[in-house]
Design goal:
8 strands, 8 helices, single chain, 306 residues, alpha+beta
Length: 306
């Protein structure tokens, strides 16, 4: 055990890291010594060795996460029903829940409560741990969304299986991605409403205020259902800054515009006038109203969107 009394946060972290490193090294040595020599010698390919080690490390990680959950499953107080506000009644102290986690499948036990007025029940630990209605851990869900953004749902599911060896079915992947997208869209609509009310959105973090801003718009047809296609209106904002460090053909220096930060993208399926509110909000977030921004370039192909 590591004594935590009278030590700074930095010192505590250093001691914790040292403790973990020593424990892991000891565990690796113990596990290696317990593997029969005949088994060690039977593995002759690196790929097979990696697969077996990955399986072992996954099982260890699953056990650590499960033990962490057991140590943090206790509730500080009896929860109240979110519908009627009455104190809920504990109906189980260790109701299990199967979760598809970052390290594989978990079976997490936590207390479960029911409303005495018949308004359903819940496990407060689920909320503290960041678990949603899907049986997917937060880290696994975040990774699943990244894959789902980059590829169709069926391909994303296959990529997840190949990368981490854990399966998330296509439908679960779709629900998670849509739920995260719904939260992002709600935040965007709130920012658009704030601009419409005269309250500009907070500029997104950047190392420097832009000297210029490029705003590009375009459209793409997206298949919403097997028989329905709609135009998605796309906008991208790229802030630029002056860079006077580049040589100008041996004649001193000249001011060049260089990108700062990353491009900010948006897409909407609303009408053209409504989309301009979305694009304008993103432009403000990219620094359109900054006093340093002296040039704005709007790029488009001239087509009339729907």
């Amino acid at each position: 055990m590591i004594p935590q009394d009278n030590v700074s946060d930095k010192s505590w972290k250093a001691q914790w890291q040292t403790f973990l490193r020593q424990e892991v090294e000891s565990l690796i040595q113990t596990v290696w010594e317990r593997i029969p020599p005949s088994v060690r010698e039977s593995v002759v390919e690196l790929a097979e060795a990696e697969t077996r080690v990955q399986t072992l490390s996954t099982r260890i990680s699953q056990g650590v996460v499960t033990r962490w959950a057991a140590a943090h499953a206790a509730d500080d107080a009896i929860p109240c029903c979110p519908t009627c506000g009455q104190s809920m009644r504990r109906v189980a102290s260790d109701r299990p829940r199967a979760i598809i986690g970052f390290f594989g499948d978990y079976r997490l036990a936590r207390a479960y409560y029911a409303c005495t007025q018949g308004h359903g029940g819940n496990a407060p630990a689920d909320r503290r741990w960041g678990l949603g209605p899907d049986h997917v851990s937060p880290k696994r869900g975040a990774l699943a969304v990244r894959f789902a953004v980059e590829a169709p749902f069926d391909q994303a599911s296959a990529l997840l299986q190949a990368a981490l060896g854990v399966t998330v079915d296509d439908e679960t992947l779709r629900r998670i991605a849509h739920r995260v997208g719904g939260v992002a869209e709600a935040e965007e609509q709130a920012a658009i409403a704030a601009v419409a009310a005269g309250h500009g959105p907070d500029p997104k973090a950047a190392s420097e205020s832009p000297s210029a801003l490029v705003v590009a718009v375009d459209g793409v047809m997206a298949q919403m259902t097997p028989k329905q296609w709609r135009e998605g209106k796309i906008g991208v904002c790229l802030p630029l800054i002056n860079d006077s460090s580049a040589p100008a053909d041996g004649a001193g220096t000249e001011s060049l515009l260089q990108p700062v930060g990353t491009p900010d993208y948006c897409i909407g399926f609303e009408s053209r006038p409504e989309f301009w509110h979305r694009g304008y909000t993103h432009a403000l977030q990219a620094g359109l109203d900054a006093r340093s921004c002296r040039l704005v370039a709007l790029l488009g192909d001239g087509a009339a969107p729907e």
